[in-house]
Amino acid sequence: MNHVSWNDLLELLDDRVAPERRSVIEGHLAECDRCRRLAESQRLLERGVRALPGVEPSGELTGRVLRMLRSSGRERTSLRLLAILGAGIPLAIVGALLAYAIVVSVASPVEGESDLFGGAFGDFRGILENIHSSLASIFGTTGDSIARVAQVDVLAIAALTVASVLVLVLADRFVLHRLRR
Amino acid sequence: MPESDRDLVKLVTRGDLQSFGVLVDRHKGRAMTLAVRMLKNRQEAEEAVQDAFVRAYHSLSAFEGRSSFSTWFYRIVYNVCSTALRKRRLDEHSSIEARAESGLPEPEAQDALPDALVESNELGTFITKAMEALPPIYAAVVSLFFLQERSYEEIVEITGLPLATVKIRLFRARTMLRGEILKQLGTTASSPGPITTKSAAIQGTAR
Fold it and tell me: Is the pTM of this model over 0.90?
């Protein structure tokens, strides 16, 4: 005589067996002492598994998790602040340069400089000349180089400004990236 | 009236950290039980549960509420434990799979647990030992199915395993549990035989 398969028996215990199949299995269990005993002992075993006590973590777990989250929250706020500063500083520099250029070019246009930013670039050139002459006096450079500086193209000054800002932004992103890690 | 998990999640996403503390208190016991069953080590289990809660908090914005918070959270616990097991380089997965592939024998009539044991208070002790001996992948499904009373479908969602795999693992886990208890009793676990033996009366019956 063949008996109820182990798989059928487990499906019966899980109540996952189709109604018509259930009646066939239950019919067999009613007649077969072997399968009935197996089913009953498995039912009791699984009841025992369900009744196993859970494992409780230490009482400090909740406090520890909340402390970790608070400190990571503070870290995140600092990083967010750094990110804002990191993005803000280069933007502020670019904005200030533009504002300065506009104000200067509108307020005191330079003769022969037709561009909107002509006056500002004229001023930048002046600043550059001053820096260069100071350096020249320190390091004893000849007047030729000062003359060369005076001829610096407006476009070159603009390119230098953009490149400086770009370097600043990249350095800023790099520092932030390192901090996040 | 205690707030539901969903309400608490809403409060947490609005910045209420204390509500997350309520969620931790509510789920830490079951999470710990699952982790201990999988990792077989209390300290590692506690670290895994702690890690899972921190991860859950940080990815709470990704919780869409399609499943319950507990299902979503136990999936994180399961994944953290699985990662810890991989890190520990336990090769139980492969060895057990290989063992399982060879086919577990089907329990026979004489394998019914002795009545005296079933009726005694000792059964719990035997079951506890058998659970400890269960390999992690099987202990996980047993823990979810019996201790958390999760359905097959919920176990699929938590473990990310296909339904067929969940069924097979649960089937094997129950066979192993029974075999382990019989082994402890000094009885032969079972005699060899195909798993799919069907009763003549049952064979041919449509499911």
Answer: no
